[in-house]
Amino acid sequence: MSEATHDNLHNADGQDQMEQLDGVTIISQSVLEEIDNSNAEESEDDSIKEKHEIPVLDYDAMSMEALTDELEKLVDNEKVMAIKDHVEGIRKAFSDKYHHFIDEKKEEFLAQNNEEGLDFEYHFPLKNKFDGIYNAYKASKAKHFKQLQNNLEQNFAVREGLIEELKNLIDSGDSNIGDMFKKVNDIRERWKNAGAIPRDKYNILWNNYHFHIERFYDIMHLDKEARDLDLKHNLEQKQLIIAKAKELLNEEDVMKAFRELQLLHRVWKEEIGPVDREHREAIWDEFSEITKQMHDKREALYAVARGKETDNLAVKNEIIVLIEALGTEKIDSHSGWQAQIKKMEALREAFFKAGKVPAEVTEETWAKFKNAVRAFNAHKNVFYKDIKHEQHENLTKKLELVEKAKSLKESTDFGATTPVMKKIQDDWKKIGHVPRKYSDSIWKDFKDACNAYFDRMHEAKNAESGEEVEAFEKKKAFLEELKSFTLSGEHKADLDAIKEHIATWKTFGKVPFNRRHIEGKFNKILDALFEKLSMSKKDTEMMRFSNRLEQMSDNDDKRALEQEQFFIRKKIDEVQSEIFQLENNIQFISSSSKGENPFIKEVQKNIERHKDDLKLWKEKLQQIKNM
């Protein structure tokens, strides 16, 4: 076969004519190299196999927790190169969500902390877990490429040896064409199974190999029978490929069929020799027409996907408009902002679930979404920043009262000082919340200063009297009798008996100030009796509380009543703050979780318990006010 004849064969069956399809046939030289390398990554077997398909999920719609779980599953169970596109999609989606999340946390931090020199830090364990999995993937990928490179170099050496063997066979001048044909077929079989080589050496080696194959055909044309047999065999092989390609047109998974068609093109070009001139153009046209149909199916699939992405873009733009509107509404209460935050979280979740948008507007859409959320957060933070400012003003006012109470705590002029101290306490009640990190310490300083003064006042005013000592002895004796009292089991009778004991106790009168510990002993006995009664927790607690208040009132112990009132108000503040914190927490948890979450349910139960406690404390406060 002359060089001109072989050139015509190459144009009919090879790369040049494939490229003439103007995008219909995708088998160009670079694609063939990529297919060759991908085959080497999977196995050294060049036969066409059914590949394990890994589903591509909508990573943009998944939470950071779900993305981390999906990455871990892929890294643990799939081959490195089979998941490279999946991993990159997961990494980008996680990175976008993480940076958006951190930006919000930083804005909240800056809004709540005005002090200079404070650096923003946020510990997010999920990010550490994600990075650990991703770094493990990168290490496995690097190891895989190193091994692959070694394999490519070894395959290159094998192929060079086969070219040298082919060259020596042709140069040997063997006159037995049949024997030479068998040896060349053996070389071609080994060439087919030799595996991939480095891409930068592909063209030179490929051209060198085919140069010597052409030389062989130039020799072989002298033996027409052997040549015709080879051309017939090649024709049968290419007809089988056409049959397989036709089957792929019926495959439901278009992308899977498209990939398999690429492999068929590789086999057609690299593994099967030329056919006779009579069938050459017709068989190539048939294969090209199938390729064009497959290309049309893929384009139709892409068109549907692009249409869906356009619909998703419209949905996301509508959500962005709603978020922008949400960020301009005027809200002037904490409860109102909590409702706004819930709306915001619902819109955020809807945005992520809306799916992919066209690639050319992905960054622009994401930027618009982030800016809308940032504007909402800035609007929200202004409100809470104002609250923070008010709390700092309250802190200044309460610090002034603490200093005033400390300056009076050693006074001995009780007639003049006591009204002033009581006014200080009244003024304290009228001042609102202070920042939580100062509330306990400032309350302790204030309480200690007030207690120091009133303790000294009561010590001076409560000298023991004979009547009070007598009352103490009576109560002491009554306690001994009460220890032998047992409940009958009849609820009403037992409750009446306890009330009678309380009434008897009151008839004894006041005891000396420094012996009022006996009241505590009596209350402990009552508590034990109440515990045994089949009463609700709330009713029991309120009965105990009422008895304690009556004792304070009977003893004319205004200081004890005031202390009790201070304590209850502080408990109300603490419970309200705890409810506020839990409600904030559950908003954040709900935004990053899907479905039923046991932890959220437990937090909700905790909130309900705190609300019950708050109701009980408020009832106690009202009872004190009534007295």
Summary tags:
mainly alpha; 21 helices; 627 residues; 78% helix; disordered N terminus
Protein described:
This protein has 627 residues and is mainly α. The chain is 78% helix and 0% strand. The protein contains 21 helices and no strands. It has helices at residues 3-13, 15-19, 29-42, 64-77, 84-112, 125-171, 177-192, 202-220, 224-248, 254-271, 277-326, 334-353, 362-408, 414-430, 436-461, 466-482, 491-507, 517-532, 537-554, 558-591, 598-626. The protein is elongated, with a radius of gyration of 44 Å. The relative contact order is 0.06. Mean pLDDT is 78; it is low at 1-51.
Strand content: under 5%
| CA(first)-CA(last) distance | 120 Å
Summarize the main sheet. none
* Distinct helical segment count: 21
Helical fraction equals: over 70%
Structural class: mainly alpha
What are the low-pLDDT stretches, counting only 5+ consecutive residues below 50? 1-51
> Shape, please?
elongated
Order of helices and strands: HHHHHHHHHHHHHHHHHHHHH
Number of E strands = 0
